[in-house]
Fold this sequence. Notes:
Lyase, Ornithine Decarboxylase, Chain A, domain 1, 2 domains, about 30% helix
Amino acid sequence: MKKIYEKPVITKIQTGFMNKFGNSPYYARKIRKDIDGISINYLVENFGSPLFVISEKKLRQQYRKIYNAFSSRYPNVVFGWSYKTNYLQAVCATLHQEGAIAEVVSAFEYEKARKLGIKGENIIFNGPYKSLKALELAVKEGATINIDHFDEITDLEKVAEKLGKKIKVGIRINMDTGIQPQWSRFGFNLETGQALDAVKRIKAGNKLILSGLHCHIGTFIIEPEAYANEVKKMVQFKYEIEDNFGYSIEFLDIGGGFPSKNKLKGTYLPPDILIPSIDEYAEKITNALYENLKPGDFPKLILESGRAIIDEAEYLITTIHASKRLPDGRKAYVADAGVNLLFTAFWYKFSIEIDREVSGVNEPSVIYGPLCMNIDILDEGTFLPPLERGTRLIFSPVGAYNNTQWMQFIEYRPNIVMIMENGSVEVVREREDLTDIERREKLPEKLKIL
Ligand SMILES: Cc1ncc(COP(=O)(O)O)c(C=O)c1O
């Protein structure tokens, strides 16, 4: 049928109004005046800027949500808090209070956990570099050691000989779970038969008792199915070992890797849409367990989730120090925090909130940090209204891998506070000063300036 003629119309474009894609980037802005009811103003006035702020409430909520997702589906679940993700005492202690044991990957982290009061038997010791001394201590104190390579088997046999007893160990394995990149650098590879060789080697040595399997397939894994593949292969390997070598595999440690609601650079969809819920992961993992385990067999399921637990519980408040115009016309801001504090800025595009109402049209803006270094960029391009000097920006989520991977380069590390559940604000790490930096330095006598 012939279409009915419609007169052309000219419609005025109303910039700034909501359209079918949501808010116009020219007016949309996120305002945050407080964290857990404590005003940004109060926090900065009392504890300075930049300032890391941890929410105890959010941290506990996240832990409980993730723990419950698994413990409500499987009867034998233990969480090992991944120290490297954030080893502030206050963070570790909160999670230990919630029931998590410690997962450490170096002698330093091991020492930290012990100093916090965690018994060796509640420590999982992973990682590719464990000295003989560190292994011996961990064995004496009853920690769970997951072996990374053949040389470590030999080392542990030496420890067993020295202590005159057989040692229970786990081995770390790596495998193809269908995701890229495949982490193949840690542990023994399953598909090539290397993992089986490790079992044979342990058996032949007759000084160690294999009692667990560990695997960590990567980080920020947005595909729950990858875990189902991991679990299936781990369970099949467990039975292969039990049937052929007479060991009893008591635990399956499936590592960490669940994503937080952060936005990876290069992803298009917002995290709320892109990131599967923790229940989807728990469902896939526990289904894979039930489909592959023999009836009545419930080995301990260990999880070492890091990022998904802490990332969203921490914020970084920064202050705009200056603004400038770049030769290409873009607006740029200098903030008092940069990649020295937010190491994860290299791969995340954080949510940025402003501490006050601001008028004016948004324009693409770059946010630089305080470092005299070209790579110090917190955001290469975000829509921001004209910001006055002194305006505060709140970056989130920043709880994972920043307070451990930050660097002391030309600036002091700032205060970290925790907003407690009762509304009080506690400093959990004090701002550094020159004494922290120079404490270990020694100036030869003849170089001293009189
Ligand atoms: C052995 C091990 N377990 C747990 C984690 C924590 O991972 P995520 O923060 O991705 O959960 C890591 C991080 O790399 C790891 O190497």
